[in-house]
Amino acid sequence: MKMLDSTRLRNPQLFDKIVTPEEAAALITDGMNVGVSGFTPSGYPKKTTIALAKAIKEGKRCRINIWSGASVGPEIEEELAAVGAIKGRMPYYAASNKSMKKGINEGKIEYVDQHLSHFGQQVDYGFFGDVDVAIIEATAITAEGNIILGPGVGNAPIFVKHAKKIIIEVNTSIPLNLEGMHDIYIPAIPPNRTEIPIYHAGDRIGKPYVECGIDRIDCIVESDILDHVRDLTAPDAASIKIAENLVEFLEYEQKMGRLPEKMLPLQSGVGSIANAVLLGLAKSRFENLEMYSEILQDSVFRLIKLGKIAKASGCAFTPSPSVWEMYKEDPDLYRKSIVLRPLDISNHPEVIRRLGVIAMNTPLEFDIYGQANSTHVMGCTMMNGIGGSADFTRNGYISIFTCPSVAKGGKISAIVPMVSHLDHSEHSVNVIVTEYGVADLRGKDPRQRAELIIENCAHPMFRPLLREYLSLGGKGHTPHFLRAAYAFHEEFLRSGDMVQTSFAAYK
User: Fold this and answer.
1) pTM here?
2) Active site residue: 78, 294, 426, 491, which one?
């Protein structure tokens, strides 16, 4: 391990606060609300929670509530969930942490799924009780005791503001040249709140560190564990075609005068599909692009390197190991292009609407009337939380959902008669894009939306079934045939193949 020195701890008093992970973990006791830094999974603490999980294995009785920005790494979610240490979880988790997923879906972990823009401010309002302990991963600590974060901001500033105890993990694997990338701003609480003065994606309105103070830091843990970020899968044929369809749609909107020649800021969701779709912009004619998003994935770094993206604002960046190496080759290029903000600023409806952000997210499924399910498989099993998708969808200049038309080798249709769980209603979804085409739902009534989605976006082998369902719906404004609304899902649970659906049994 590279030892902490004055480049990381910039006041001699700070060295007196260095403890072992075990000593730090001892500060965490049963029933506490523990706020951790980080975001999907970037910039989160590791050593303290590993030590806490070990202590629980050895007999310590401790179940806690974990609060974060979004998902964090297995050193928190997997290690603690596996030993039964997590009582409650907010506001988001990722299904890659299997023990956490199992605990949530078995009802052993109390998971509250929340809009990410809401959670930090609700903690600030005191809605959920005290922040008993904040565990924050840092690049360095200033002479005044302020915290220079790593690649993930999340809700760290709010947790530090309210924490009774503060544990800082200073990670020597984080490049020091991240310093200056952060813009930390906390809005005042109503009725004293004023506008958030961001008028361009790259605007800076705060400070490059989280205000804390030496006296408030209870202890410091030295760390060198890398973030648990994996290389994303290469774009497949469907993702490449979705990207082409999306670019064609945006170009058409410009041609029609509904988008300015200088493209409005873009937001992109999380995951391999979202990353592939965004990377498709590399082949477009768009230049000097800006992003105002929550997460900055591999594609953003590649587009910055290509000169396609000029400014990118987010709550965190999660480069894969290969892209981290690309960052290290030219850190100044990315430092001047990227701004990292607190989550309640990166996802703030006021700013999203002012900038005219084009929202691009990926659901699990959507129905023929334009409603989207982002969170639950077959209506019951929590996959991932809603995250920030609704923050951007409800407030974006155009709200776009991109998704392959089928999953599981064609056994699941992403377009169904009725979503098995609703996260985004038809009131929020403007445009749907699959590898087969684009359905522009703006100004369309339910029947018109259904016809567009079926003909333009559904996989050809599912179109006859979807047309049949629509014909069974009768005359209502939204012509559902309720007895068969979940026939696709029921058939998959029965046979494992939605294409085997027959409506005869429902008539």
Assistant:
1) 0.96
2) 294
